[in-house]
Amino acid sequence: MTGIDHRIRALLVAAVILAQPATSEESEPARYESALAEWRADRVADLKGPTGWLNLAGLYWLKEGANSFGAADDNDLVTPEGSSPRKLGDFVVENGTVTFQAAPGADVLHDETPVTEMVLADDQEKRATLLTSGPLAWTVIRRMDRLGVRLRDYDHPAIGAFAGIESFDADPSWRLEARFEPYPEPRTIRVPTIVEGLGWEPTVPGTLEFEVQGHSLSLEAYRSDDGFMIVFADETTGDTTYPAGRYLAAALPGDDGTTILDFNKAYNPPCVFTEFATCPLATPRNRLPVAVEAGERYTEKP
Predict the structure, then answer these.
(1) CB 75, CB 83: distance < 8 Å
(2) Would you say the pTM of this structure is higher than 0.85?
């Protein structure tokens, strides 16, 4: 699911750092904590950045035909009050293709070039088309047979108000070696999402088998562009961590068939930070019978 997985590359960077040999046994814990702190800082910067989740201002599902877009209440897709002209244009859907037609006088740009009419690539293609107007930006997303528009506001007040992410203390014992066990053939499964009636169908090449706290456990791994994405729940889920589960990135296995699961880098799904996300949820298959007191925490807001 490219719209959700495109950050996997950044989330794997710390794993490369941690794979470097320590200069001495004494320096290894400090080196690990330093790398983890850097990963956490990058995570916050990513959330607050232009492609992060904090600046989302809308998610609109498109119907076949014309979908008017702007601040006026009579538009099909109404932008937040005061954020745009009364009409920015129309998204025209025809046989799975979306064309944007700018309204007369609307200041809509693509790569700083004015747009009057343009066919838009969605987020399942190599590069989604980004259109902007003032502080607003939008792209088309595709989720199974549904097309939508994801709106960003680069001046969104949530960016400045963001207070950071709660996390468990670093615990190197939750950095585990896992053996990849491939299925005879990769599977496609249906995973529920936070959006009712909308599923996700990732490719599942196999499972990751590991030992922790005397338990032999396994997780189904979903293939991403750069490695594995894992959506899991555990005994902390709904208590000290997010009720829908957490995510974890892992590198593809090496020649020995193993990879590392570092639960200190288990991270909250986008729906923790915005209502305009389409987060996959943890399946019963990926619920662990242990309390993973590592990674990002969650406290429900009053």
Answers:
(1) no
(2) yes
Q: Which residues contact 47 (CB under 8 A, 6 or more apart)?
A: 53, 54, 162, 165, 273
User: Of 60, 62, 106, 100, whose CA–CA distance to 84 is shortest?
Assistant: 106
Name the residue type at position 7.
R
What six digits make up the tokens of 179?
């053996």
What letter represents residue 204's amino acid?
A: V
Over its C-alpha atoms, the chain yields an Rg (Å, rounded) of 21
Q: Distance between CA 99 and CA 79 in Å, rounded?
A: 19
Q: Are residues 242 and 16 in contact, defined by beta-carbon separation less than 8 angstroms?
A: no
**Apex 74 CA angle, 275 and 95, nearest 5:** 70
Q: Quick one: which of 214, 194, 203 has its CA closest to 269?
A: 194
Question: Which tokens go with 168?
Answer: 């468990």
Instruction: Look up residue 192 and give its amino acid.
Output: P
CA-to-CA distance for 193 and 60, rounded, in angstroms?
16
- Counting residues of the chain whose pLDDT is more than 70, the rounded percentage is 91
The rounded distance, in Å, linking the Cα atoms of 107 and 85 is: 9
Residues in the chain where the model's pLDDT stays below 50 = 2, 4-6, 8, 13-24
- What is the DSSP track for 89-138? EEEEEETTEEEEEEPTT---EETTEE-SEEEE-BTTSSS---EEETTEEE
Tell me phi and psi for residue 198, to 5 degrees. Answer: -110, 120
Please check whether residue 96 is in contact with residue 81, taking contact to mean a CB–CB distance below 8 angstroms.
no
Amino acid at 209: E
- Under 8 Å between Cβ of 217 and 210: yes
Cα gap 175→83, rounded to integer Å: 45
